[in-house]
Amino acid sequence: MGTDRSKLAFWLLMAPLLIWLITLIVLPHVGMFLVSLREKVGVREYETSFANYGVFFNEPLYWNTFARTAYMSIASTMLTLLIGFPIAYYIAKLTRGRTKTTLFLMCLIPFWVSELVRTFGWMILLRETGVFSNALQYLGLVSGPVEMLYNDAAIMTGLVYTSMLFMVVPLVTTLDSLDDSLIEAGYDLGASGFAILREIVIPHAMPGIVSGCIVVFMLSLGNYLTPILLGGKDSLWFTGLIYSQFITRFNWELGSAFGFLLLGLSSLIVFVGLKLSGQSLGKTMAQT
User: Fold this and answer.
1) Coil, helix or strand for 191?
2) Most exposed residue of 173, 240, 258, 286, measured as fewest CB within 10 angstroms of its CB?
3) Cα–Cα distance measured from residue 99 to residue 91, given in angstroms and rounded to the nearest whole number
4) What is the pLDDT of residues 237-267, one digit of tens each?
């Protein structure tokens, strides 16, 4: 009797999660995959085929944009890690009390407004008549207005900025659990700061590094606003192609195929990353 009640309680607790997963994730993806297999052969006439996927591989613009989106997302993830790791280490290990809370809150403050507002903020800073351009002219470093928008550097800046919190939070959580005595013992044994970082800090923080990289990579790969607004209409971001197929051209079949190709790319890169880091997804999520 007790076992039956435990099972019932378990399924009742799991029901909201299962309903959410099935109705908002599984069913839409199944539906989109079925749409991607439809080839239009006439007015409201369709055949089942992989023709939409063939369109992608036969058009250089599509797979070049696909590859560009992948390596730009990987680069932004690595840059976010390089910037976020020292910040997280300082917050977790070198600060205490109110200072620690204040620094962590400062990381959260930009996310109190929407991504659209934050991206427009960068446009105000980087545009030809923006703050940075006017400051350079005032200091005499340039002779005229400088346009800093609509290039890869602007896109990378926006991607790193919009996803920094999702790297810092898991790193702070993981590094906070690192016993300070281990670091002290390393110094007592004559290890250098770099050796301690390599042998103690990074191995302990690896679950946080992996989980942060996964989240940041997914956000960068699927980002639409930042590449379009900071990179311009010619930014060549794959989500922009998906948007144009669905909204501009009303070609839901090809748009669905592009969406599944993006899903496959993200899954493949995450799988390779987990293998290279020696981590498992379940272990990583359990420790962060």
Assistant:
1) coil
2) 286
3) 8
4) 999 899 889 888 888 899 999 999 998 888 8
